[in-house]
Amino acid sequence: MDNLPRFTAAAVQAAPVYLDAAATVEKTVALIAEAAAGGAELVVFPEVFVPGYPYWNWTMNPVQGSPWFERLYRSAIDVPGPYVDQLCAAARQYGIVLVIGVNERGPHSLGVLYNTLLTIGPDGVLLGVHRKLVPTWAEKLTWTGGDGSSLKVHPTPVGPLGALACGENTNTLARFTLLAQGELVHASCYIALPVAPADYDMADAIAVRTAAHSFEGKVFSVVACSTISPEIVDAVAGDDEDVRRMLARPRSALSGIFGPDGRPVTEPLIDTEGIVYAEIDLARCIQPKQMHDIVGHYNRFDVFQLHVDNRPQAPVTFATDPPPPPSPFSLAPSPSSRTDTGTDTDTTGITKEDA
Fold first, then answer.
1. pLDDT of the residue at 109
2. Which residues contact 134 (CB under 8 A, 6 or more apart)?
3. Residue 60 per-residue DSSP state
4. How many CB atoms neighbour CB 179 within 10 A?
5. Rounded to 5 degrees, what are φ and ψ at 109?
6. Helix or strand run (H / E) with residue 160
7. What pLDDT, on a 0 to 100 scale, did the predictor assign at position 348?
8. 48: burial class by Cβ within 10 Å (0-12, 13-18, 19+)?
9. Which of 21, 128, 270, 276 has the fewest CB atoms within 10 Å, i.e. is most exposed?
10. d(CA 73, CA 110)
11. Of 85, 103, 97, nearest to 187 (Cα)?
12. If you average pLDDT over residues 60-75, what whole number do you get?
């Protein structure tokens, strides 16, 4: 406690190279290098940055969007896999803690996609693979929900780090689960959302949710949101002027860093691409806890109890070891991409019962 981390964090606000995993990972590595040159020891990227968000779910009916789902699936990535290896290598090369959102192909079933956050340590080790628990609204047309096995806070050189994707930051119980594990640094990963109802201000919504978590938990939050490039508009909207206007709606993205008082540490970035830097001093989390510590003295655990099922949820359970099913995509993990989600689930999504 005498040496609480003090470091520079970076929130990256950028657009992916749409539906191109290889090019997006290359862009990611370049942005990591830029952030590291700016002094960052923690770099947070947007939700499903690799290789993009399924905006067609909001602008097309499900039948029209089905071919786009296949395009996204084919351009998604495997975890572990070569693109994860590249991200791990970049984190190791630049000595940074990395949080980034990806579209992950489910290894147990052709066609399954997860909205996944990867947490990677500065030694290049894959610390966590968190699959978004509940896809939001139209997102249910694309992603399968995750389970509680990945609701973990990871010890890192920048402090105890947790991460949630977009609407999960509205889920009070998910947030409390991380806070109750000692979270002091929270990564919030979002996408630009200009397709919400007309009276919805995404920038304000991100700021409110981020400030709430920081203030309630007395933690620092690093929030990274994607932007919508002209390439994305052209791909999704084509000649439909109504959709083009919708995707160009302002105040659809906000990235920044918030302190334990709920206020931005520095001016957030709205809509445009860039990197927001701020210094985080975890010692600032101590004094506010004297007033409200919702995982300590400012709670009544004799009245309230939260039960979290952190067992991995598998499609089938065998009493003995079955042979793993063949997969056209699965790749053996390399030493730089070891996954530790705190479970005994293998990459087939099959668990074993104890005899």
1. 94
2. 145, 167, 168, 171
3. S
4. 22
5. -155, 120
6. strand 159-165
7. 44
8. buried
9. 270
10. 9
11. 97
12. 97
Residue found by looking up tokens 């996954």 in the block = 339
- Would the pLDDT of 218 be above 80? yes
Predicted local confidence at residue 327, as pLDDT: 63
**Is the Cβ–Cβ distance between 79 and 116 less than 8 Å?**
yes
Residue that has been written with the tokens 């304000």 in this structure: 204
Tokens of 21: 């995993």
Mean of the pLDDT values across residues 162-187?
98
Q: Which residues are identified as catalytic?
A: 47
Distance CA 123, CA 301 (A): 38
Residues 342/149, Cβ–Cβ less than 8 Å: yes
Structure tokens at 22: 């290889």
Helices (H) and strands (E) in the chain, counts: 8, 14
Q: Tell the residue number behind the tokens 């192909």, with chain if given.
A: 105
Q: What pLDDT, on the 0 to 100 scale, is given for residue 322? A: 76
Global pTM reads: 0.91
Strand 254-258 to strand 269-270: parallel, antiparallel, or no bridges (unpaired)? antiparallel
Question: Chain-wide mean pLDDT for the chain?
Answer: 93
The pLDDT tens digits for 229-254 are 999 999 999 999 999 999 999 999 99
Instruction: Provide, for the chain, the percentages of residues in helix, strand and coil under a 3-state DSSP scheme, each rounded to the nearest 5.
Output: 30, 20, 45
Whether residue 346 has pLDDT greater than 60: no
For the segment 114-148, what is each residue's pLDDT rounded down to a tens digit? 999 999 999 999 999 999 999 999 999 999 999 99
109 strand-pairing partners: none
For 217, the 3-state DSSP assignment is: helix
Kindly list the distances between the CA atom of residue 259 and the CA atoms of 155, 208, 280, 323, in Å, as whole numbers in the listed order. 19, 13, 8, 49
For 314, the token pair is 């598998």
**Burial of 155: CB neighbours in 10 Å, binned 0-12, 13-18, 19+:** exposed
State the number of CA atoms in the 13 A half-sphere of 342 facing the CB.
14
Q: Which two tokens stand for residue 313?
A: 């949820």
Using the structure block, give the residue that is written with the tokens 């509205």. Answer: 170
CA atoms within a 13 Å half-sphere pointing along the CA-CB vector of 170: 10
